[in-house]
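Input chain follows. Return structure tokens only.
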Amino acid sequence: MKLSNSLGRLRLAGLLEGTSFLLLTGVAMPLKYFAGHPEAVRVAGMAHGVLFLAYVATLIQAHRQYQWPGKRSGLLFVSALLPFGPFVADRKLLRGLPE
């Protein structure tokens, strides 16, 4: 994964965003509701929000640079809304693309 191009940055942003989503739903939310620690969601939620925005920004950049069809970019966007979505999208839609 090369960070010198927008595809590499998109893949990295997707992996970070997907991980933050899983930490938010799998760790922070149970801490809030079962252990009474609402600050966990506050911190993890903010991190996830920032990473989601970074993912969308890198997706727009890659879409413009590589002139992808709207369907590919739309699927990549929707994948960020689903648990494990960015990991599946990386495997199915991004690997093997020319950088």
